[in-house]
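Q: My labmate handed me this sequence with no annotations at all. I'd like to see what the chain might look like in three dimensions before we decide whether it's worth expressing. Could you predict it?
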Amino acid sequence: MWANAQTEGGEAVNMPDSDIRILYEDSEILLVQKPAGMPSQPDPCGQPDLLTVLARRMPVWLVHRLDTPTGGVMVFARTPHAAAALSRTVQDHERFVKEYLCVLPAAPQEPEGVLADWLYHDSRRNRTYPVAPPREGSTPRKGVREARLAYRTIGIAPDGTALVLARLYTGRTHQIRAQFASRGLPLLGDGKYGSHSKLPNIALWAVRLTVPHPTDGHPVCATCLPTGEPWSRFDLPKGQMQNPKNTPNDSVTEPLI
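A: Here is what I predict for the chain of 257 residues:
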């Protein structure tokens, strides 16, 4: 099955997966909807990945990743210059803004707030754990890094599950998954972090991405909303997250949270 997407200039683009959509495209960058369950780049399992699919159509460079179970907005560079420029800003979370939707088994105690932790990622087990903060004046041990995100509960389903919007201020491996799970709220479908809900993928979706354009630094923003279970339990705030015209000068840049 082939999906038909539109570029900025109105050109029809065929993509070899019904869930891949081009959200914004120009000569330097490409913002794309990655399907949940598709790797961002080639992995040892050999299943189709987004980078390879895009590379069949045009030269592209990977500058960041989403976990395989996570769908949503990703940006790819189309030139070496754009790749270098984006790579320099990917850790600047005031300009390279990542916003996510997730579904939790219940609403957090506070309807909105900031989660701050020290996290250790065990690369052998591919799992992230919260740990005690380092003593004042001491250097954190290898693999331990500070993590911070802001969140807001934006919906509660009849079964009590909660739709939460999260914005990352640091980009740690499995950060959203580990921080909520450590508070007794593992994301639905995330068995690695203690969820007992059976879903095809983790209930985590990169709903909006804002990046500085490599040529002039103007913000470019793209949004895409998830469909299906468990997202269908909620009235997703389409008006609040509507895509702008997807041009560097017209993009809505005010973060959702």
